[in-house]
Amino acid sequence: MGEHVVVGVGPVSMADVVSVARRNAAVTLSAEALAAIDAAREVVDSLAAATTPSYGVSTGFGALATRHIPQELRAQLQRSLVRSHAAGSGPEVEREVVRALMLLRLSTLATGHTGVRRETALLMADLLTHGITPVVHEYGSLGCSGDLAPLAHCALALMGEGPVRTADGELTDAATALAAAGLSPVELHEKEGLALINGTDGMLGMLVLAINDLTDLLQVADVSAAMSVEAQLGTDRVFAPELQAIRPHPGQAASAANLTAILRDSGVVASHRGPDCNRVQDAYSLRCSPQVHGGVRDTVAHAVAVATRELASAVDNPVVLADENRVESNGNFHGAPVAYVLDFLAIVTADLASISERRTDRFLDKARNHGLPPFLADDPGVDSGLMIAQYTQAAIVSELKRLANPASVDSIPSSAMQEDHVSMGWSAARKLRRAVDGLTRVLAIELMTAARALDLRAPLEPSPATGAVVALLRNHGVGGPGTDRFLAPEIDAAYQLVSDRSVTRTVASVIGELA
Protein backbone atom coordinates (compact mmCIF):
# COMPACT_ATOMS: atom_id res chain seq x y z
CA MET A 1 0.00 0.00 0.00
CA GLY A 2 1.38 3.41 -0.95
CA GLU A 3 1.94 6.46 1.21
CA HIS A 4 -1.06 8.48 2.33
CA VAL A 5 -1.26 12.04 3.70
CA VAL A 6 -4.31 13.31 5.57
CA VAL A 7 -4.74 17.08 5.32
CA GLY A 8 -6.37 18.53 8.42
CA VAL A 9 -7.06 21.95 9.88
CA GLY A 10 -3.48 22.13 11.16
CA PRO A 11 -0.35 22.45 9.03
CA VAL A 12 1.05 19.69 6.87
CA SER A 13 4.62 18.78 7.72
CA MET A 14 7.67 19.16 5.52
CA ALA A 15 7.81 15.36 5.41
CA ASP A 16 4.24 15.33 4.09
CA VAL A 17 5.19 17.75 1.33
CA VAL A 18 8.11 15.56 0.26
CA SER A 19 5.95 12.44 0.41
CA VAL A 20 3.28 13.90 -1.87
CA ALA A 21 5.66 15.75 -4.18
CA ARG A 22 8.27 13.06 -4.70
CA ARG A 23 6.71 9.76 -3.69
CA ASN A 24 3.20 10.27 -5.09
CA ALA A 25 1.41 9.87 -1.76
CA ALA A 26 -2.39 9.81 -1.90
CA VAL A 27 -4.20 12.71 -0.23
CA THR A 28 -7.46 12.94 1.70
CA LEU A 29 -9.12 15.63 3.83
CA SER A 30 -9.94 15.00 7.49
CA ALA A 31 -13.46 15.32 8.86
CA GLU A 32 -12.34 18.37 10.87
CA ALA A 33 -11.02 20.04 7.73
CA LEU A 34 -14.28 19.44 5.88
CA ALA A 35 -16.24 20.90 8.80
CA ALA A 36 -14.01 24.01 8.81
CA ILE A 37 -14.44 24.37 5.04
CA ASP A 38 -18.22 24.17 5.40
CA ALA A 39 -18.28 26.76 8.19
CA ALA A 40 -16.26 29.24 6.15
CA ARG A 41 -18.43 28.65 3.12
CA GLU A 42 -21.53 29.63 5.09
CA VAL A 43 -19.95 33.02 5.76
CA VAL A 44 -19.18 33.54 2.06
CA ASP A 45 -22.69 32.50 1.02
CA SER A 46 -24.24 34.99 3.44
CA LEU A 47 -22.05 37.80 2.12
CA ALA A 48 -22.80 36.82 -1.46
CA ALA A 49 -26.51 37.21 -0.77
CA ALA A 50 -26.06 40.65 0.82
CA THR A 51 -26.64 43.89 -1.07
CA THR A 52 -23.41 45.42 0.28
CA PRO A 53 -20.36 44.68 -1.94
CA SER A 54 -17.69 42.41 -0.38
CA TYR A 55 -14.22 42.21 -1.93
CA GLY A 56 -13.46 38.88 -3.50
CA VAL A 57 -17.05 37.75 -3.12
CA SER A 58 -19.10 40.22 -5.15
CA THR A 59 -16.51 42.59 -6.64
CA GLY A 60 -13.76 42.61 -9.23
CA PHE A 61 -10.14 42.04 -8.27
CA GLY A 62 -6.94 44.00 -7.80
CA ALA A 63 -7.18 47.40 -9.47
CA LEU A 64 -10.74 46.47 -10.56
CA ALA A 65 -11.97 45.90 -7.01
CA THR A 66 -14.35 48.88 -7.04
CA ARG A 67 -16.86 47.26 -9.39
CA HIS A 68 -19.81 45.45 -7.83
CA ILE A 69 -20.60 42.27 -9.77
CA PRO A 70 -24.29 41.22 -9.98
CA GLN A 71 -25.30 37.68 -9.05
CA GLU A 72 -25.87 36.49 -12.61
CA LEU A 73 -22.27 37.33 -13.62
CA ARG A 74 -20.40 35.81 -10.67
CA ALA A 75 -19.85 32.35 -12.13
CA GLN A 76 -18.43 34.06 -15.19
CA LEU A 77 -16.33 36.25 -12.89
CA GLN A 78 -14.68 33.18 -11.36
CA ARG A 79 -14.05 31.54 -14.72
CA SER A 80 -12.65 34.76 -16.12
CA LEU A 81 -10.36 35.24 -13.13
CA VAL A 82 -8.81 31.79 -13.45
CA ARG A 83 -8.55 31.84 -17.24
CA SER A 84 -6.99 35.30 -17.37
CA HIS A 85 -4.53 34.57 -14.57
CA ALA A 86 -3.40 31.27 -16.14
CA ALA A 87 -0.94 33.31 -18.18
CA GLY A 88 2.30 31.46 -17.58
CA SER A 89 4.96 31.04 -20.25
CA GLY A 90 8.12 29.08 -20.84
CA PRO A 91 9.20 25.53 -20.00
CA GLU A 92 7.07 23.21 -17.87
CA VAL A 93 7.76 23.30 -14.16
CA GLU A 94 8.80 19.98 -12.61
CA ARG A 95 6.03 17.60 -11.54
CA GLU A 96 7.26 17.52 -7.94
CA VAL A 97 6.97 21.30 -7.69
CA VAL A 98 3.40 21.33 -9.00
CA ARG A 99 2.35 18.55 -6.63
CA ALA A 100 3.93 20.39 -3.71
CA LEU A 101 2.16 23.65 -4.50
CA MET A 102 -1.19 21.87 -4.94
CA LEU A 103 -0.84 20.14 -1.57
CA LEU A 104 0.05 23.42 0.13
CA ARG A 105 -2.90 25.23 -1.46
CA LEU A 106 -5.14 22.38 -0.29
CA SER A 107 -3.70 22.73 3.21
CA THR A 108 -4.71 26.41 3.24
CA LEU A 109 -8.19 25.56 1.93
CA ALA A 110 -8.52 23.06 4.81
CA THR A 111 -7.96 25.73 7.47
CA GLY A 112 -11.43 27.15 6.96
CA HIS A 113 -10.14 30.62 6.15
CA THR A 114 -10.69 30.69 2.38
CA GLY A 115 -14.40 30.04 1.81
CA VAL A 116 -14.23 27.37 -0.89
CA ARG A 117 -16.86 24.66 -1.10
CA ARG A 118 -15.96 21.17 0.05
CA GLU A 119 -16.38 19.72 -3.45
CA THR A 120 -13.69 22.05 -4.76
CA ALA A 121 -11.22 21.05 -2.05
CA LEU A 122 -12.06 17.37 -2.48
CA LEU A 123 -11.39 17.56 -6.22
CA MET A 124 -7.94 19.03 -5.60
CA ALA A 125 -7.17 16.13 -3.25
CA ASP A 126 -8.42 13.71 -5.90
CA LEU A 127 -6.13 15.21 -8.55
CA LEU A 128 -3.16 14.58 -6.27
CA THR A 129 -4.26 11.04 -5.45
CA HIS A 130 -4.80 10.16 -9.13
CA GLY A 131 -1.50 11.75 -10.18
CA ILE A 132 -3.13 14.31 -12.48
CA THR A 133 -0.67 17.20 -12.69
CA PRO A 134 -1.59 20.51 -14.34
CA VAL A 135 0.99 21.99 -16.68
CA VAL A 136 2.58 25.01 -14.97
CA HIS A 137 5.13 27.23 -16.66
CA GLU A 138 8.44 28.73 -15.58
CA TYR A 139 7.43 32.39 -15.86
CA GLY A 140 4.38 34.21 -14.55
CA SER A 141 4.68 34.70 -10.80
CA LEU A 142 5.88 37.89 -9.10
CA GLY A 143 5.54 36.26 -5.68
CA CYS A 144 2.95 38.76 -4.48
CA SER A 145 -0.79 38.23 -4.41
CA GLY A 146 0.77 34.81 -4.16
CA ASP A 147 2.02 32.67 -7.02
CA LEU A 148 -0.95 33.73 -9.12
CA ALA A 149 -0.18 32.33 -12.56
CA PRO A 150 1.15 28.92 -11.41
CA LEU A 151 -1.82 28.41 -9.09
CA ALA A 152 -4.26 29.60 -11.78
CA HIS A 153 -3.03 26.85 -14.11
CA CYS A 154 -3.89 24.36 -11.35
CA ALA A 155 -7.30 25.96 -10.76
CA LEU A 156 -7.96 25.73 -14.49
CA ALA A 157 -7.62 21.95 -14.27
CA LEU A 158 -10.27 21.83 -11.53
CA MET A 159 -12.59 23.52 -14.03
CA GLY A 160 -11.81 20.78 -16.56
CA GLU A 161 -9.75 23.10 -18.72
CA GLY A 162 -6.12 23.37 -19.81
CA PRO A 163 -3.33 20.82 -20.31
CA VAL A 164 -2.35 18.27 -17.67
CA ARG A 165 -0.10 15.25 -17.39
CA THR A 166 -1.42 11.91 -16.25
CA ALA A 167 0.23 9.74 -13.63
CA ASP A 168 2.36 8.11 -16.34
CA GLY A 169 3.45 11.47 -17.76
CA GLU A 170 1.16 11.55 -20.80
CA LEU A 171 0.15 15.04 -21.92
CA THR A 172 -3.60 15.46 -22.32
CA ASP A 173 -6.38 17.92 -21.54
CA ALA A 174 -7.91 18.23 -18.08
CA ALA A 175 -11.40 17.17 -19.14
CA THR A 176 -10.10 13.90 -20.59
CA ALA A 177 -7.90 13.16 -17.55
CA LEU A 178 -10.71 13.87 -15.09
CA ALA A 179 -13.14 11.65 -16.99
CA ALA A 180 -10.63 8.80 -17.16
CA ALA A 181 -10.24 8.99 -13.36
CA GLY A 182 -14.01 9.09 -12.82
CA LEU A 183 -13.91 12.71 -11.65
CA SER A 184 -16.06 15.67 -12.62
CA PRO A 185 -14.88 19.28 -12.95
CA VAL A 186 -16.33 21.96 -10.67
CA GLU A 187 -18.05 25.22 -11.53
CA LEU A 188 -16.46 27.79 -9.26
CA HIS A 189 -18.72 29.87 -7.03
CA GLU A 190 -18.14 33.21 -5.28
CA LYS A 191 -14.69 33.68 -3.75
CA GLU A 192 -13.39 30.30 -4.98
CA GLY A 193 -11.26 31.66 -7.82
CA LEU A 194 -9.31 33.92 -5.49
CA ALA A 195 -9.01 31.20 -2.86
CA LEU A 196 -7.41 28.86 -5.36
CA ILE A 197 -4.74 31.25 -6.67
CA ASN A 198 -3.82 33.68 -3.90
CA GLY A 199 -1.02 31.88 -2.03
CA THR A 200 2.73 31.51 -1.61
CA ASP A 201 2.46 27.78 -2.25
CA GLY A 202 4.82 27.53 -5.21
CA MET A 203 7.72 29.29 -3.58
CA LEU A 204 7.04 27.51 -0.27
CA GLY A 205 6.91 24.11 -1.93
CA MET A 206 10.25 24.73 -3.61
CA LEU A 207 11.70 25.96 -0.30
CA VAL A 208 10.64 22.76 1.45
CA LEU A 209 12.11 20.58 -1.31
CA ALA A 210 15.36 22.57 -1.27
CA ILE A 211 15.64 22.22 2.51
CA ASN A 212 15.14 18.48 2.16
CA ASP A 213 17.92 18.28 -0.45
CA LEU A 214 20.35 20.59 1.35
CA THR A 215 19.97 18.68 4.60
CA ASP A 216 21.39 15.61 2.88
CA LEU A 217 23.94 17.54 0.79
CA LEU A 218 25.40 19.06 3.96
CA GLN A 219 26.17 15.54 5.14
CA VAL A 220 27.66 14.73 1.74
CA ALA A 221 29.82 17.86 2.02
CA ASP A 222 31.16 16.63 5.37
CA VAL A 223 31.93 13.26 3.77
CA SER A 224 33.71 14.78 0.79
CA ALA A 225 35.63 17.21 3.02
CA ALA A 226 36.74 14.35 5.27
CA MET A 227 37.95 12.40 2.25
CA SER A 228 39.86 15.46 1.03
CA VAL A 229 41.46 16.09 4.42
CA GLU A 230 42.44 12.42 4.58
CA ALA A 231 43.81 12.09 1.04
CA GLN A 232 45.72 15.41 1.28
CA LEU A 233 47.42 14.20 4.46
CA GLY A 234 45.64 16.81 6.57
CA THR A 235 45.03 16.67 10.29
CA ASP A 236 41.83 15.88 12.12
CA ARG A 237 43.01 17.58 15.33
CA VAL A 238 41.41 20.88 14.33
CA PHE A 239 37.97 19.24 14.48
CA ALA A 240 38.25 18.40 18.20
CA PRO A 241 35.10 19.26 20.19
CA GLU A 242 36.97 21.43 22.70
CA LEU A 243 38.08 23.71 19.84
CA GLN A 244 34.55 23.96 18.47
CA ALA A 245 33.13 24.72 21.92
CA ILE A 246 34.97 28.03 22.16
CA ARG A 247 33.00 29.27 19.15
CA PRO A 248 29.60 27.74 19.91
CA HIS A 249 27.75 27.82 16.62
CA PRO A 250 25.61 24.65 16.54
CA GLY A 251 26.15 23.93 12.85
CA GLN A 252 29.92 24.15 13.22
CA ALA A 253 29.88 21.68 16.11
CA ALA A 254 27.74 19.24 14.13
CA SER A 255 29.96 19.41 11.05
CA ALA A 256 33.16 18.98 13.07
CA ALA A 257 31.66 15.99 14.87
CA ASN A 258 30.81 14.44 11.50
CA LEU A 259 34.34 14.98 10.18
CA THR A 260 35.83 13.39 13.30
CA ALA A 261 33.51 10.38 13.07
CA ILE A 262 34.12 9.88 9.35
CA LEU A 263 37.91 10.00 9.78
CA ARG A 264 38.00 7.71 12.82
CA ASP A 265 40.41 4.76 12.45
CA SER A 266 41.94 6.13 9.25
CA GLY A 267 45.28 4.55 8.46
CA VAL A 268 46.10 7.51 6.23
CA VAL A 269 45.58 10.04 9.02
CA ALA A 270 47.43 7.84 11.53
CA SER A 271 50.44 7.58 9.22
CA HIS A 272 51.42 11.20 9.82
CA ARG A 273 50.01 11.90 13.27
CA GLY A 274 53.31 11.46 15.14
CA PRO A 275 56.00 13.97 16.14
CA ASP A 276 57.72 13.71 12.77
CA CYS A 277 54.81 15.38 10.97
CA ASN A 278 55.96 18.78 9.66
CA ARG A 279 52.46 20.01 8.68
CA VAL A 280 51.81 23.04 10.87
CA GLN A 281 48.44 24.12 9.46
CA ASP A 282 46.24 22.91 6.66
CA ALA A 283 44.82 25.28 4.04
CA TYR A 284 41.59 27.03 4.91
CA SER A 285 39.48 24.90 2.58
CA LEU A 286 40.45 21.88 4.71
CA ARG A 287 40.89 23.37 8.17
CA CYS A 288 37.84 25.66 8.06
CA SER A 289 35.40 23.13 6.61
CA PRO A 290 33.31 22.97 9.83
CA GLN A 291 33.08 26.74 10.02
CA VAL A 292 31.81 27.07 6.44
CA HIS A 293 29.66 23.94 6.44
CA GLY A 294 28.37 24.91 9.87
CA GLY A 295 27.39 28.38 8.70
CA VAL A 296 25.40 26.77 5.90
CA ARG A 297 23.76 24.45 8.40
CA ASP A 298 22.69 27.34 10.60
CA THR A 299 21.28 29.18 7.59
CA VAL A 300 19.29 26.09 6.63
CA ALA A 301 18.02 25.91 10.22
CA HIS A 302 16.75 29.48 9.89
CA ALA A 303 15.04 28.54 6.62
CA VAL A 304 13.38 25.60 8.39
CA ALA A 305 11.99 27.99 11.02
CA VAL A 306 10.54 30.27 8.32
CA ALA A 307 9.14 27.34 6.35
CA THR A 308 7.54 25.89 9.47
CA ARG A 309 5.78 29.17 10.22
CA GLU A 310 4.65 29.46 6.61
CA LEU A 311 3.31 25.90 6.65
CA ALA A 312 1.20 26.90 9.65
CA SER A 313 -0.23 29.91 7.78
CA ALA A 314 -3.47 30.40 5.89
CA VAL A 315 -2.43 32.62 3.00
CA ASP A 316 -5.34 34.16 1.14
CA ASN A 317 -6.93 37.55 0.48
CA PRO A 318 -9.55 38.27 1.56
CA VAL A 319 -9.55 35.83 4.44
CA VAL A 320 -12.61 34.33 6.10
CA LEU A 321 -12.90 34.68 9.88
CA ALA A 322 -15.71 32.19 10.40
CA ASP A 323 -15.95 32.69 14.18
CA GLU A 324 -16.63 36.39 13.60
CA ASN A 325 -18.81 35.88 10.52
CA ARG A 326 -16.74 38.24 8.38
CA VAL A 327 -14.29 38.45 5.51
CA GLU A 328 -11.31 40.82 5.68
CA SER A 329 -8.63 41.99 3.28
CA ASN A 330 -5.01 41.55 4.37
CA GLY A 331 -1.46 41.44 3.04
CA ASN A 332 -0.48 37.92 4.09
CA PHE A 333 -0.04 36.87 0.46
CA HIS A 334 3.20 38.87 0.18
CA GLY A 335 6.04 36.42 -0.34
CA ALA A 336 8.84 38.46 1.27
CA PRO A 337 9.51 36.17 4.29
CA VAL A 338 9.87 33.16 2.01
CA ALA A 339 11.74 35.02 -0.74
CA TYR A 340 14.42 36.24 1.66
CA VAL A 341 15.35 32.77 2.90
CA LEU A 342 15.30 31.37 -0.62
CA ASP A 343 17.92 33.98 -1.48
CA PHE A 344 19.88 33.25 1.70
CA LEU A 345 20.02 29.58 0.73
CA ALA A 346 21.24 30.40 -2.77
CA ILE A 347 24.13 32.35 -1.23
CA VAL A 348 25.25 29.58 1.11
CA THR A 349 24.75 26.93 -1.58
CA ALA A 350 27.19 28.83 -3.78
CA ASP A 351 29.74 29.11 -0.99
CA LEU A 352 29.47 25.46 -0.02
CA ALA A 353 30.21 24.56 -3.64
CA SER A 354 33.05 27.07 -3.71
CA ILE A 355 34.94 25.51 -0.79
CA SER A 356 34.39 22.04 -2.27
CA GLU A 357 35.91 23.15 -5.57
CA ARG A 358 38.94 24.62 -3.75
CA ARG A 359 39.54 21.31 -1.96
CA THR A 360 39.31 19.49 -5.28
CA ASP A 361 41.74 21.84 -6.98
CA ARG A 362 44.42 21.18 -4.36
CA PHE A 363 44.52 17.52 -5.41
CA LEU A 364 45.47 18.43 -8.95
CA ASP A 365 48.38 20.78 -8.28
CA LYS A 366 51.67 18.93 -7.75
CA ALA A 367 52.95 21.79 -5.61
CA ARG A 368 50.10 21.37 -3.14
CA ASN A 369 48.97 17.74 -3.21
CA HIS A 370 51.76 16.26 -1.06
CA GLY A 371 53.30 13.68 -3.33
CA LEU A 372 50.45 12.78 -5.67
CA PRO A 373 50.93 12.91 -9.46
CA PRO A 374 49.87 16.09 -11.28
CA PHE A 375 46.13 16.06 -11.94
CA LEU A 376 46.10 12.55 -10.46
CA ALA A 377 47.06 11.40 -13.96
CA ASP A 378 48.48 7.97 -14.74
CA ASP A 379 51.20 9.33 -17.04
CA PRO A 380 51.13 13.14 -16.70
CA GLY A 381 51.57 14.79 -20.06
CA VAL A 382 50.22 11.82 -21.94
CA ASP A 383 47.25 11.67 -19.56
CA SER A 384 45.32 14.69 -18.24
CA GLY A 385 43.75 12.85 -15.32
CA LEU A 386 41.00 14.86 -13.63
CA MET A 387 42.12 18.23 -14.96
CA ILE A 388 38.92 18.97 -16.86
CA ALA A 389 36.64 17.53 -14.17
CA GLN A 390 37.81 20.48 -12.08
CA TYR A 391 37.01 22.80 -14.99
CA THR A 392 33.47 21.47 -14.85
CA GLN A 393 33.36 22.20 -11.14
CA ALA A 394 34.70 25.71 -11.70
CA ALA A 395 32.09 26.42 -14.39
CA ILE A 396 29.31 25.29 -12.06
CA VAL A 397 30.65 27.33 -9.13
CA SER A 398 30.80 30.40 -11.34
CA GLU A 399 27.18 29.83 -12.32
CA LEU A 400 26.19 29.40 -8.67
CA LYS A 401 27.74 32.74 -7.82
CA ARG A 402 25.51 34.35 -10.43
CA LEU A 403 22.49 32.50 -9.05
CA ALA A 404 23.36 33.85 -5.59
CA ASN A 405 22.40 37.33 -6.75
CA PRO A 406 19.18 37.95 -4.78
CA ALA A 407 15.84 38.04 -6.56
CA SER A 408 13.99 39.51 -3.58
CA VAL A 409 15.51 42.98 -4.00
CA ASP A 410 14.13 43.33 -7.52
CA SER A 411 10.55 44.51 -7.16
CA ILE A 412 8.57 45.53 -10.28
CA PRO A 413 5.20 47.26 -9.79
CA SER A 414 2.14 45.72 -11.46
CA SER A 415 -1.68 45.87 -11.66
CA ALA A 416 -1.90 49.58 -12.42
CA MET A 417 0.29 50.35 -9.37
CA GLN A 418 -2.13 48.63 -6.98
CA GLU A 419 0.48 45.91 -6.50
CA ASP A 420 3.42 48.29 -6.31
CA HIS A 421 5.84 46.09 -4.34
CA VAL A 422 6.34 42.39 -5.02
CA SER A 423 8.63 39.72 -3.60
CA MET A 424 9.93 37.83 -6.65
CA GLY A 425 9.91 34.78 -4.37
CA TRP A 426 9.01 32.40 -7.21
CA SER A 427 12.09 33.56 -9.13
CA ALA A 428 14.22 33.12 -5.99
CA ALA A 429 12.92 29.57 -5.67
CA ARG A 430 13.53 28.70 -9.31
CA LYS A 431 17.17 29.77 -9.17
CA LEU A 432 17.68 27.97 -5.86
CA ARG A 433 16.58 24.71 -7.49
CA ARG A 434 19.25 25.19 -10.17
CA ALA A 435 21.81 26.02 -7.47
CA VAL A 436 21.04 22.88 -5.46
CA ASP A 437 21.51 20.76 -8.58
CA GLY A 438 24.83 22.48 -9.26
CA LEU A 439 26.03 21.87 -5.70
CA THR A 440 25.16 18.18 -6.09
CA ARG A 441 27.42 17.97 -9.15
CA VAL A 442 30.28 19.85 -7.50
CA LEU A 443 30.25 17.55 -4.46
CA ALA A 444 30.12 14.49 -6.73
CA ILE A 445 33.32 15.61 -8.48
CA GLU A 446 35.06 16.22 -5.16
CA LEU A 447 34.09 12.71 -4.05
CA MET A 448 35.44 11.04 -7.18
CA THR A 449 38.66 13.12 -7.01
CA ALA A 450 39.25 12.35 -3.33
CA ALA A 451 38.49 8.67 -3.95
CA ARG A 452 41.12 8.49 -6.68
CA ALA A 453 43.63 10.20 -4.40
CA LEU A 454 42.90 7.75 -1.58
CA ASP A 455 43.55 4.86 -3.98
CA LEU A 456 46.89 6.49 -4.85
CA ARG A 457 47.82 6.59 -1.14
CA ALA A 458 47.86 2.77 -1.01
CA PRO A 459 49.02 0.77 0.85
CA LEU A 460 47.79 3.24 3.48
CA GLU A 461 44.21 2.35 4.40
CA PRO A 462 41.40 4.93 4.47
CA SER A 463 38.94 5.04 7.35
CA PRO A 464 36.13 2.47 7.32
CA ALA A 465 33.64 5.20 6.37
CA THR A 466 35.63 6.76 3.54
CA GLY A 467 36.71 3.35 2.31
CA ALA A 468 33.05 2.38 2.01
CA VAL A 469 32.39 5.48 -0.12
CA VAL A 470 35.33 4.60 -2.38
CA ALA A 471 33.93 1.09 -2.78
CA LEU A 472 30.47 2.50 -3.53
CA LEU A 473 31.89 4.64 -6.32
CA ARG A 474 33.92 1.78 -7.75
CA ASN A 475 30.88 -0.52 -7.74
CA HIS A 476 28.77 1.99 -9.65
CA GLY A 477 30.91 2.87 -12.63
CA VAL A 478 33.30 5.44 -11.16
CA GLY A 479 36.70 3.96 -11.91
CA GLY A 480 39.92 4.32 -9.95
CA PRO A 481 43.37 5.50 -11.09
CA GLY A 482 44.42 4.60 -14.61
CA THR A 483 44.88 5.91 -18.10
CA ASP A 484 42.52 8.57 -19.37
CA ARG A 485 38.99 7.53 -20.27
CA PHE A 486 35.62 9.10 -21.05
CA LEU A 487 34.88 10.98 -17.82
CA ALA A 488 31.36 12.33 -18.35
CA PRO A 489 29.61 9.01 -17.54
CA GLU A 490 31.67 8.66 -14.37
CA ILE A 491 30.77 12.17 -13.24
CA ASP A 492 27.13 11.39 -13.91
CA ALA A 493 27.37 8.14 -11.96
CA ALA A 494 28.86 9.98 -8.98
CA TYR A 495 26.15 12.63 -9.29
CA GLN A 496 23.44 9.95 -9.17
CA LEU A 497 24.97 8.39 -6.04
CA VAL A 498 24.88 11.78 -4.33
CA SER A 499 21.41 12.77 -5.52
CA ASP A 500 19.76 9.45 -4.62
CA ARG A 501 21.42 9.61 -1.16
CA SER A 502 23.44 6.44 -1.60
CA VAL A 503 26.55 8.23 -0.27
CA THR A 504 25.01 9.22 3.05
CA ARG A 505 23.27 5.84 3.44
CA THR A 506 26.60 4.09 2.87
CA VAL A 507 28.37 6.15 5.52
CA ALA A 508 25.49 5.66 7.95
CA SER A 509 25.71 1.89 7.47
CA VAL A 510 29.31 2.00 8.71
CA ILE A 511 29.34 4.61 11.51
CA GLY A 512 25.68 5.43 12.14
CA GLU A 513 23.65 8.44 11.12
CA LEU A 514 25.54 11.68 10.65
CA ALA A 515 24.43 14.89 12.34
Automatic annotation (TrEMBL):
GO biological process, one term: L-histidine catabolic process to glutamate and formate
EC number assigned by the record: 4.3.1.3
Gene Ontology, cellular component aspect: cytoplasm
Signal sequence interval, chain numbering: none
Cellular localization per UniProt: Cytoplasm
Keywords, in A-Z order: Histidine metabolism, Lyase
Chief location: cytoplasm
GO molecular function: histidine ammonia-lyase activity
InterPro entries: Aromatic_Lyase (IPR001106), Fumarase/histidase_N (IPR024083), HutH (IPR005921), L-Aspartase-like (IPR008948), Phe/His_NH3-lyase_AS (IPR022313)
Pathway(s) this gene product operates in, as recorded in its UniProt entry: Amino-acid degradation; L-histidine degradation into L-glutamate; N-formimidoyl-L-glutamate from L-histidine: step 1/3
Catalytic activity: L-histidine = trans-urocanate + NH4(+)
UniProt keyword Lyase, yes or no: yes
PANTHER family on file: HISTIDINE AMMONIA-LYASE (PTHR10362)
Family: Belongs to the PAL/histidase family.
Protein name (database record): Histidine ammonia-lyase
The organism of origin for this protein: Nocardioides turkmenicus
Gene: hutH
